[in-house]
Design goal:
The protein has eight helices and 73 strands. By secondary structure, it is mostly beta strands. A hairpin with a 7-residue loop joins strand 52 and strand 53. This is DUF6383 domain-containing protein.
Length: 965
C-alpha cells in the first residue's frame, strides 16, 4: 500500500468514534496506510474543530456541500460511492471547522469554511433566509447530537434542516443532526490527471524545499492519463518542452544513480527527462514503466505521496539493467536522501505489512494549478485541419459524426466552420452545420512544441476513426466571420431583413439552363406554374418570417425547426431563415398539396388544417437560389409547366432569382403638410373633427356646422424609427385661438382606449377588467370605442402631452410604439389607405388578480353613420385617400384668389363670372366634388353654389378659389 511519510496519525484519528491510541514509534518507517489498516472504513464523530477538512453528513449518503453549478448555493449532495466520486465534487462537500468564540451562555461557536471555494458558511440574518451564501449569520453552535444552528436576535434563529434530500433553513429547534466524517477512501485518493491541476492536467509539482538537480522545480507539467492496467498512472511532460528531437519526452527514472552511503536496490536513482525506449536492441531494459507516476492524496489535509510504477536495477551478475520490481510487487515511492551537504530526490522500495519506506524520507509535496494553453486569437469561428499522411485535411461534421476532406471550408457556408468558445480555461469546438462537437466535453488544449498545432483532450474519436487522442490539430481563425451580422447569421440561405419583408414583394424568376431562354416567371393558374412572361404579369408574393414563441427567427435543419443549425449550446447565432409566401392583400398562402402548390387561406379549424408551406432560399452555386420546403426542393415539371416538389437529389439546375417589387404594407406620407383625408367611396366626404363634440367624423363640406377649413388637417410625423411602419399625428387647429396655436397646441386624433377600459379594484383588493359604458367615448350600440380629438402638445423628440379637463392635468406619452395618437396608414389592394393605431389598455393580471397589466391593442378606423370608431377587424376598416391641400383654418379675408383676367365674385349662395361668355366652367368644393358645370351664355353669369370655399375653373384659365357665404 502507498505511504505518506511524516503524517501525524493521532491528528488523523482525533474525535473518531473508535478509540485507538496509535503512537508513532519510528517516524522514518511509519505510514498513513498503516494507521488506516487498523480503523474502520468510516470514522464518524461529533462535530468539533479540525486541523484539516471533514465531511458533514446528515444521513448515510447526504453531505453538506456547495453547489458546483452555482457556488453561492448550499445544498446536500448524495454520494453513492465516495471512492469513485469526482474529486472536485468531494472537495465541495469538505469543510474546515474552526472555533469562533462563545455565545452568551459560554457555549463554543464554530465557523465552517468550504474546501473547494474557500467560502465561509454564512446566511442572511432573517426569518425567511434561503440557503444561499450571504453576509449575516456565520458563527454556529453545535449540539452534542450534531444540530447546527445560530441566533441572529433574541427571538430569531436559523438551523440547517435536511428533508427529502434537500437543505433549507428553519428555526434552531428544527435543525437536523450532522456528524463529522472522513471516509477512508478519501484518505488515500488516487488522483486522476485532471485532479493534479484542480480540474486541469497542467500543474506544478513542488517538493517543499530545495533539492539538488531537481528537474521538476519551476516547471509547468502536463499529465496524460493512462488507461487499462495503468489506469491509476499518468505520464508527465514539460509544457513547452515536450520533445527530444521528434520524439515525445517524459519525466521518469534514469539508469544513473547518486552515490549514497548504505544504499541498496533502487535507492539513489536519478530523475531525468527522456523519450520512451521501445527497442530491446538498444537497451537491456525498457523504461516505459519508469515514466509512469501515481499520486495519492489524503483529501482531509491535502498531503500527497508520489509513486513510480517501476525502477531500474543493475544486475551485477549479468552486468545489465533490468526492472527492479516483478509480479505483483508494489510501486517505488519518491523520497529524498541526504548526499553530503545537499538533499536529492530519488525513490525507495516499500516493504513489510503494512508497507513502509525502506530508505529515505517522504518529501512534503504540494500541487499547484498550472496555466492551460490558449488560442491566441480567442473565441470565434475556426477551420480545423489535421495532418493525414503527407497532406492536410479539414475536419467536417456529418449528421452522425466527423469526417476529413481535402477541400477547405469557406466563409459563406457553415459546413466545416467550428464555433470555438473558451470557458474556465477549457474549450468547446462545435461545427456550425450539424452542431457536432470535436470533443465529447469542454476540453483542455496543449501547444505542440515547435509547431502551430495543439493536442486536445477528450477528442470525439467515436465520431471518426481518423481522429484520436494525440492527434495534432491546426486551428485557422476566421476573423471575418463574426458570430453576428446578417450575412453570417444566415449564411448559405437568403435572409430578408424587416425592410425587405415589409416594403417589398417578390416574383420568382426561374433561371433557365438554356442560353437565350429568359423571362421564365412564376404565375398562378389554379396552381403555381412557370411561364415566359414579364415581371409585371408574374405572381407577386409577400414573405412572412417564421418565428418561434419568443419572436426569434426559427432555425431550421431540414424540416426540423427545434434541431436548429449552428453551435447552439455555445450561443451561436447562426440560423436558417425560413419564410411563408402569400398574396399581400388577400392573405392567400402558397400551400403544398398533392406534390403541387396552390393558393389558399390558412385555416387551423379545417381537417386537415390548412397552413402555408415553409420555404428556405438556399444559396446555390453561381446565381440564384434553390427553393426548398422541408426536405424537398421546388422544381419545374417540364411536361406540365407546374412547380412541384422533388427530392433534393433529383435537382439539376432549378434555381430561382428573386425579383424585387415595391409593395409596402404601410404608406409613407409627405409630412409634415396640410392634407385632406378623404373617403375612398367617392361620396365627397372627408375626415374631420366635430367642432362641438370633438369626435372624429366623416362629413360633407357645408353639412351642418362643417365649414371647408375643418377638412384641412395637419399631418405631422410621429415616429419614423421603424421605417417599415411610419406613424403620423393627424391634427387640426380649429377651435384654438392664435395664442394656443403659437404655443404649439393642436387637437390630435386619438384612440381613447384608456378612457373606456380599465382594471377596477374591488373590496377584496383584487382587480377586475371593466368597460366604462358611461364614458362619452363608448359606442354602446356597436360595443366599440369612438375616435376623438384631444388637445395636446408635442415636446422633445418623440413625446406627447395630452391636456385633460383640469387645466394642470396632462398625460405624457413617450412610447411611440403604443401611442394612442400615432397613426399608421395601411396600404390596400385598391391603392387606398386604412388608418391603424397601436396602443395598450389596462387589464387585471391573469395570473395574479392583485396586480394590473397592460394588453396590446391594434385598432382600425371604422365608419358607422358618419361617426368614426375603432375596431380590431382590419377587414371592417374604412378606406381613405390622403392628398395635399392648401386648406387650413383661416379667416375668409385671407383666402387667396388666383390671378386671372376673368373676374370671379362670390356672393351669398352664388358666384358671378364676368368676361367669360361662351366658355365652359367647372365649380368644385374643397373635396374635389363638382357642384356646378355649364357653358356661360353671357359675360356676367351668376351660378348658384353651396356655401364654403369653391374652386372656379374657367376654360383656358387657372382655377380661382373664392369663399361663398
Amino acid at each position: 500500500m502507498p505511504n505518506l511519510k511524516g503524517q501525524n496519525i493521532e491528528e488523523l484519528l482525533i474525535n473518531t468514534s473508535i478509540n485507538i491510541n496509535f503512537r508513532i514509534m519510528n517516524k522514518k518507517f511509519s505510514t498513513l496506510v498503516a494507521g488506516l489498516a487498523m480503523i474502520s472504513a468510516v470514522a464518524s464523530a461529533q462535530i468539533t474543530k479540525t486541523d484539516g477538512y471533514t465531511m458533514l453528513k446528515s444521513s448515510s449518503s447526504d453531505y453538506l456541500a456547495v453547489y458546483g453549478a452555482k457556488s453561492d448555493s448550499v445544498v446536500v449532495k448524495t454520494f453513492s460511492n465516495l471512492a469513485t466520486a469526482p474529486k472536485a465534487s468531494i472537495d465541495s462537500a469538505m469543510w474546515k471547522v474552526t472555533e469562533a468564540g462563545v455565545d452568551a451562555t459560554g457555549n463554543k461557536l464554530y465557523s465552517f469554511t468550504n474546501k473547494k471555494t474557500g467560502a465561509v458558511l454564512s446566511f442572511a440574518a432573517k426569518k425567511d433566509a434561503k440557503p444561499n451564501l450571504a453576509a449575516g449569520v456565520d458563527k454556529w453552535s453545535v449540539t452534542t447530537d450534531g444540530k447546527i444552528s445560530a441566533y441572529y436576535s433574541a427571538n430569531g434563529s436559523l438551523g440547517l434542516v435536511v428533508s427529502g434530500g434537500k437543505l433549507s433553513l428553519g428555526i434552531a429547534s428544527a435543525a437536523t443532526a450532522f456528524t463529522s466524517e472522513v471516509n477512508s477512501a478519501l484518505k488515500a485518493r488516487t488522483l486522476a490527471a485532471s485532479d493534479l491541476g484542480d480540474g486541469f492536467t497542467v500543474f506544478s509539482l513542488n517538493f517543499g524545499e530545495a533539492y539538488q538537480e531537481n528537474i521538476f522545480e519551476g516547471k509547468e507539467l502536463v499529465a496524460t492519463q493512462l488507461t487499462g492496467a495503468d489506469a491509476d498512472y499518468v505520464q508527465l511532460q514539460e509544457v513547452g518542452a515536450d520533445k527530444i528531437g521528434e520524439k515525445d519526452a517524459y519525466f521518469g527514472l534514469d539508469t544513473t544513480k547518486y552515490t549514497i552511503a548504505g544504499q541498496k536496490d533502487v535507492f539513489g536513482y536519478k530523475f531525468a527527462k527522456d523519450s520512451t525506449w521501445l527497442d530491446n536492441g538498444y537497451h537491456t531494459v525498457l523504461n516505459g514503466d519508469f515514466q509512469k507516476f501515481k499520486f495519492i492524496q489524503d483529501l482531509s489535509n491535502d498531503k500527497v505521496a508520489v509513486y513510480v510504477k517501476n525502477a531500474p536495477v543493475y544486475n551485477t551478475t549479468t552486468k545489465k539493467f533490468e526492472a527492479a520490481l516483478t509480479g505483483t510487487a508494489a510501486d517505488v515511492q519518491v523520497v529524498y536522501a541526504q548526499v553530503t551537504n545537499s538533499k536529492v530526490l530519488t525513490v525507495s522500495k516499500l516493504s513489510g505489512t503494512p508497507s513502509t519506506i525502506e530508505q529515505g524520507v517522504a518529501p512534503s509535496v504540494k500541487l499547484g494549478k498550472g496555466t492551460p494553453a490558449t488560442l491566441p486569437t480567442g473565441d470565434g469561428v475556426y477551420f480545423i485541419k489535421v495532418k493525414s499522411g503527407d497532406e492536410f485535411k479539414y475536419v467536417y461534421a456529418t449528421a452522425s459524426g466527423l469526417e476529413l476532406k481535402k477541400d477547405a471550408p469557406n466563409a459563406y457556408n457553415p459546413a466545416g466552420q467550428f464555433y470555438v468558445v473558451a470557458k474556465g480555461g477549457k474549450y468547446q469546438f462545435v461545427e456550425r452545420n450539424f452542431n457536432q462537437g470535436l470533443t465529447t466535453a469542454a476540453a483542455q488544449i496543449y501547444k505542440v512544441t515547435g509547431k502551430d498545432a495543439y493536442r486536445v483532450d477528450a477528442v470525439n474519436s467515436a465520431a471518426s476513426a481518423s481522429l484520436a487522442a494525440g492527434t495534432e490539430f491546426y486551428f485557422e481563425y476566421q476573423k471575418d466571420i463574426k458570430a453576428g451580422g446578417k450575412e453570417y447569421n444566415y449564411m448559405a440561405t437568403k435572409y430578408l431583413d424587416k425592410v425587405a419583408v415589409d416594403n417589398f414583394a417578390y416574383t420568382l424568376n426561374l433561371i433557365s439552363g438554356t442560353e437565350g431562354v429568359d423571362d421564365l416567371y412564376t404565375i398562378v393558374d389554379g396552381v403555381l406554374k412557370v411561364k415566359k412572361t414579364t415581371a409585371e404579369d408574374a405572381a407577386k408574393f409577400k414573405v412572412e418570417v417564421i418565428k418561434d414563441k419568443t419572436g426569434k427567427v426559427w432555425t431550421s435543419n431540414a424540416d426540423e425547426h427545434k434541431a436548429g443549425v449552428g453551435a447552439i449550446a455555445l450561443g451561436d447565432t447562426l440560423a436558417t431563415a425560413t419564410y411563408k409566401l402569400y398574396k399581400q392583400y388577400t392573405k392567400e398562402y402558397v400551400v403544398a398539396k398533392d406534390n403541387e402548390f396552390k393558393l389558399a387561406k390558412e385555416d387551423n379549424t379545417a381537417t386537415p388544417a390548412v397552413a402555408g408551406s415553409e420555404f428556405t432560399f438556399k444559396t446555390a452555386k453561381g446565381n440564384g437560389y434553390l427553393l426548398s420546403t422541408g426536405d424537398k426542393i421546388v422544381v419545374l415539371d417540364v411536361n406540365t409547366g407546374k412547380l412541384i416538389s422533388a427530392a433534393a437529389s433529383a435537382v439539376n439546375n432549378n434555381y430561382f432569382d428573386l425579383v424585387v417589387e415595391p409593395s409596402p404594407d404601410y404608406a409613407t406620407l409627405n409630412a409634415p403638410s396640410h392634407m385632406l383625408v378623404k373617403s375612398a367611396e367617392a361620396d365627397g366626404k372627408a375626415l374631420s373633427m366635430n367642432p362641438k363634440s370633438l369626435f372624429a367624423e366623416v362629413k360633407l363640406a357645408g353639412q351642418e356646422e362643417y365649414i371647408d377649413s375643418l377638412f384641412g388637417l395637419w399631418i405631422d410625423t410621429a415616429c419614423v424609427k421603424d421605417v417599415t411602419r411610419p406613424t403620423y399625428y393627424i391634427t387640426t387647429g380649429n377651435g384654438l385661438d392664435s395664442a394656443a396655436i403659437a404655443d404649439g397646441y393642436r387637437y390630435f386624433l386619438v384612440n381613447p382606449q384608456d378612457s373606456v377600459y380599465s382594471a377596477v379594484k374591488g373590496d377584496d383588493d383584487k382587480y377586475t377588467s371593466k368597460t366604462n359604458e358611461g364614458s362619452a367615448y363608448w359606442n354602446a350600440t356597436e360595443g366599440l370605442v369612438k375616435a376623438a380629438f384631444v388637445k395636446a402638445i408635442v415636446y422633445g423628440e418623440d413625446s406627447l402631452a395630452i391636456v385633460r379637463e383640469k387645466a394642470t392635468a396632462v398625460d405624457t406619452l413617450k412610447t411611440m410604439s403604443v401611442n394612442p395618437a400615432a397613426m399608421a396608414f395601411v396600404t390596400t389592394a385598391n391603392n387606398t389607405l386604412k388608418i391603424e393605431n397601436k396602443t395598450t389598455k389596462e387589464i387585471a393580471n391573469e395570473d395574479d388578480a392583485t396586480k394590473t397589466d397592460r394588453e396590446d391593442v391594434t385598432s382600425y378606423l371604422k365608419v358607422i353613420n358618419n361617426v368614426l370608431v375603432w375596431t380590431d377587424n382590419r377587414d371592417e376598416a374604412h378606406e381613405f385617400v390622403a392628398e395635399a391641400t392648401t386648406l387650413h383654418p383661416t379667416s375668409n379675408d385671407n383666402v387667396e384668389e388666383g390671378a386671372s383676367a376673368i373676374s370671379v365674385v362670390a356672393n351669398d349662395g352664388t358666384v358671378t363670372i364676368q368676361g367669360a361668355a361662351g366658355k365652359s366652367v367647372v365649380i368644385s368644393n374643397i373635396l374635389g366634388k363638382v357642384v356646378a358645370e355649364t357653358v356661360l351664355s353671357s359675360d356676367n353669369a351668376t351660378i348658384a353654389v353651396p356655401a364654403g370655399i369653391v374652386a372656379v375653373a374657367v376654360e383656358g384659365e387657372a382655377a380661382v378659389k373664392v369663399v361663398v357665404k
